[in-house]
Design a protein that fits this description.
Layout (H helix, E strand, L loop, with lengths): L2 H9 L3 E6 L5 H14 L4 E5 L2 H6 L3 E2 H5 L9 H8 L2 H9 L2 E5 L6 H14 L10 E5 L28 E6 L9 H11 L4 H8 L11 E4 L2 H13 L5 E5 L1 E4 L1 H10 L5 E5 L3 E4 L13 E8 L2 E6 L4 E3 L3 E7 L2 E8 L2 E3 L2 E3 H4 L7 E5 L7 H6 L8 E6 L8 H22 L3 H14 L19 H12 L4 H8 L3 H13 L14 H14 L4 H12 L5 H9 L3 H15 L3
Parallel strand pairs: 1-5, 1-6, 2-3, 2-4, 4-5, 7-18, 7-19, 19-20
Antiparallel strand pairs: 8-10, 9-16, 11-12, 11-17, 12-13, 13-14, 15-16
Helix pairs in contact: 1-2, 16-18, 18-21, 19-20, 19-22
Length: about 575
Amino acid sequence: MTQDQAYDILTMGHNVFLTGAAGTGKTYLINRFIRHAREHGITIAVTASTGIAATHIGGMTIHSWSGMGIRDTLTDEDIDVIVSREYLAKRFAKTNILIIDEISMLSGVFLANLDRLLRSTRFSQEPFGGIQVVLVGDFFQLPPVSRGSDVEFAFEHPSWRTYRLAICVLDVQYRQGEDPLLTILNEIRSGDMSQESFSLLDRRNIPVDTEDHTELFTRNISVDTYNTQRLNAIHDDTFVFEMQSKGAEKLVEALKKGCLAPETLILKKGARVMFVKNNFEAGYVNGSIGHVVGKYESLPIVELTDGTRIIADHMDWSIEENGKVKATILQIPLRLAWAITVHKSQGMTLDTAVMDLSDAFVRGQGYVALSRVRSLNGLILRGYNPIALQIDSRVRDYDEILRATSAAVIERLAQISESEKETKIETAIKKLGGILQKIDLDFVDPKRAKLATHEETYSLIQSGKSLDDIAEIRNIKISTIFSHIEKLTEEGKIIDLTSHRPDDSHRLSDIHRAFVEVGTLSLSPIREFLVSLHDEDYTYDELRMARLFLSISDRAKIEEQMLYESEGI
């Protein structure tokens, strides 16, 4: 199924299960649908099964949105307690579309409880109380955490068949189609790994300096051990930050359990770290990676991979009830990041990763880990055990059913005329409490007339697409993409371009030195300077790309020099 076909089904108001392999554009399509809902004044809730996944799509966890937390059971008394919170009752009543991303990590029991909660609170026996529900994810990825001996996937629960889901399996790849890694991933999905693919993986156990590469392990203890070893290898002063807490003990413990920052954070100058909370004003997001370069007063200074330096101040995590804070914890929002677990990596896209899958213990771990990197050349594989490359047979069997069902949906869609389709979309908009006349989402500020196209580029970057892919998908020039990025940066959008950094670091350094020496951000004088110095040609697109990666300090020097020259100093 194509993105456009799935978009038609979404906008016609169906409950949908949207799935597909990595690189088929699920996130891009969901962002497009979110914009459709907002343009028509429909109240939409964007959620995910994990905090990291929720961050990627600009939402919150479904556990938090629903007020259900991580409970396994939901009694009538529980429902009464949940709806007694006025803000939750209003949330359920007003919401008309609910998106839940990374559905593979939600249990069937949780979804069934959510369905029951919404039917009860909205006084409707329609699935999810009449809310249009869009479930997004890939069951080939990590399954729900199970406290028993066997995992129950969401599709195995009896309630799954009552949700009336239109199945949309995206099957058009937007990642590099010729890369051998794509073949390997597809073979893992099919359960038929060729000898050639095994050989390709075996040959990726190559020597490499791991200093600038992310290490992936399957177990927390391996991650903690590796990070501690790397920290201990640094012979420098230690910075220690203890978590502070206030409130009911059980609530504080729940906050600590869900917080990625450790209770005792130990850092040294040179430590590789990752921010674990969003702070757009400070210039970082959950997942931003950098190195500790010093201290300002008592706080660590972190230099991100793009050269930006940030003073990492304390942030709080809290639990509120009826607008009142019941418990709170305070800590520097950092954790050591030479290594992370495969579980934490789900949803990330990395240029290069070093991984050890020899201790994999869940089917799907290997697939998730391998699909984090963009290409086979970015993979360094220290080892793997048989389970690492296995997929649960239940998932593979159900995938065949999904594909057959999706094909049937395509056939039915093809029988609908364009006029019928428009009528169905208008009917859905009205049913969901929307208006037919589109709202100009950019009306507040006339200067943002072109922002819609910038936002489309931003959504594609956030979903992990390469700049070349974005240009192809949107049918625009790469130079236009650069202009979008510069405009978004000026408007305060946080864009992590690390994965788009040019491969030729020496040439990039030459261009950066030229910007500093010439003392301008204009491209023509930089090109003239470089051509005369190196007797090589430099394209404007190449220079524009390099300008995006100027460090904050270099850009400040250049802008200061430009200011002096403009004032004749």
